[in-house]
Amino acid sequence: RLFMSRNSNWNERELTLALALYYRVPATKISGTNPMLKDASAYIGRSSSAIAFKLANFRAIDRNAGEGPKGFSHGSRIDTEVMQRFIDPDSGSVDLEKLSDAVQSIFGSIYSPLEETRALDAILGVEVLPNIKKTEAVSMVKRRVGQGYFRNAVLANCGNTCLISHCKIPELLEAAHIVSWSAGEADRLTIGNGIALNPFFHEAYDKNFMGISPDGKVEFAESLKQRSIDFWNNYLDPLEGLKIDLDTRTPINKEFLSLHYQEFRAGKFDVGF
Fold first, then answer.
1. I want to staple 216 with a disulfide (CB 3.0 to 4.6 A). Which of 31, 69, 209, 244 is the partner?
2. CA–CA separation, 246 vs 216, rounded Å?
């Protein structure tokens, strides 16, 4: 049931899907020529140029938005209401699980299973195998979609760039949780709990071989120097003390960074191996 809306006023369904796409598209890629917007057009029911304008409008009313494409500066009441529905009022961080659940609910009610998987891929960038029946594995599917969307949204929030190596190849990047999946159930899929890293730095961060201070300074554990001196001298020593850019569209949660950094500092000088 693909269609293009003839109504100039956006409804809540269209706005929810556009908002989900907003967090997936890097700020610099908001354009009617973006292939992601073209793919999503049929499912949202608006042209890619109209979607681009709506995404720019979300960016304009996003209280944390920096410089970039702008829509109407004041936004509309319903745009703001839909946006705030998925934002934690205390942290200002987006609940990606809640948003991806809303998208799944929309598609689950109006599309066939095959079209639904295509739609989820177009809006959230998450492909779900069409032979997985919702009645058999609802929680598994929702978790898979939520995690996939978390990765896409975190990478987009960081400009599809590793914050340390500056690698800009999305296929080589991962979304690292700041507060771990097991320790932070309530914040597992909030956008402020993620940073884009390449796999090496992701693993080093998870295992506390590397720390990132709340102000963005990179540090490495003493054990890394002791265990692989050549690797340290050639690759890591130049990065010691590097100040990374934390000025993302949606702020990276500094309280979460502080909690992880404290864990890192507690074991920084442990060189036992």
1. 244
2. 6
